[in-house]
Amino acid sequence: MKYPLLPLCVMLSLLTGCSASARPLSTQLPTLEPDASPSSSPASTEYISPSASWWTHLDLNDLPSQKVDVTDQLPQEELFLLDELPEDDVSLYGYLSAGDTPSGILLRHGATYTHFDQVFLSENNPIAPQLWWMDPDGDGDQELAVYYVTDNNSSVFRSEFHLYEVSEEGWSDHALLPDTCQAVLLDALSCRWTDDGVTIQVGKRSLAFCTDELSPSVAQNAPLTCGDRIFYRYDRGTFTGVYTIGFSSSDGEPVHVASLLADIAYDGSNITLTNLRLEGYYGV
Predict the structure, then answer these.
(1) Distance CA 245, CA 230 (A)
(2) What is the annotated signal peptide range for this record (predicted)?
(3) At the N or C end, where does the chain have fewer CB atoms within 10 A?
(4) Do 60 and 172 have their domain in common?
(5) In this structure, are strands 90-97 and 79-85 parallel, antiparallel, or unpaired?
């Protein structure tokens, strides 16, 4: 991974009307459904078919109560407590499938719990998920926001943002997944090369770089890359996605030059990315 030293002549050029927010960018993601019917009465004596999912057999007393430190090493247990919000009666459990692969989660709120097949942890340099119990759409009902780091190595840092809604029937999931974000954001970006340099633009906001300031491995008209490093952060009620922007290079490693930032909005049905803006690594 290369981070070229870009001199101060890298310019952040905000075009006319740049103070206006970019149009909301919908990711058009479908709601992810759980892999089986949720159990809202775990202690029920109702007959469970032998072919039913493993988690439908669980009683609340079967769920682990001691939080584990996944940054050290994965626990030996098949099901373990990743994190909880005791004041809200919310718990997040991790599930290890065959081969010790972090392949699923179990969400609990009170006596309602649901399993989702999803990666919740990076197998290299694991970072524990972060949880928030909040009302992002302002409808008076709380949702669970979770930030997962799913891939963490020297060249890639990929993460996912999930909003889970809970009802008497169980949980539903709205997610920002890396591949979808990359495709949507690359479609929103434009790149214009000239003999003197290159300009990256999103909406009415742009960044300009001189040719001499880019790495020699970046050829003229090199295509843009986006999102091989994806972060999410929370500040004063707003979640923001941070996606690296760069260029393909002759040695196969993307050369990063900027970050694309997008605020996350949720209307109760869809997640959208709004207020897209660019931040150069160097310059003014």
Answers:
(1) 10
(2) 1-22
(3) C
(4) yes
(5) antiparallel
Distance between CA 194 and CA 217 in Å, rounded? 17
Tell me the residue range of the domain where 16 lies.
11-27+180-280
Last residue of a domain, one of 133, 157, 176: 176
CA 35, CA 46: separation in Å to the nearest integer?
20
Could you give the number of structural domains in the chain?
Answer: 2
Structure-token match 């930032």, residue found: 261
Note the helical H segments in the chain: 178-188
User: What string of pLDDT tens digits covers the 284 residues of the chain?
Assistant: 443 433 333 333 323 233 233 333 444 433 333 433 333 322 222 333 334 566 777 788 888 999 988 887 777 777 899 999 999 999 999 987 655 666 789 999 988 888 898 889 888 899 999 999 999 999 999 999 999 999 998 888 999 999 999 887 788 999 999 999 999 999 999 999 999 899 999 998 999 999 888 888 899 899 999 988 999 999 988 999 999 999 998 887 888 999 999 999 999 889 999 999 999 885 43
- 184: tokens are 């949507």
In a domain? residue 46: no
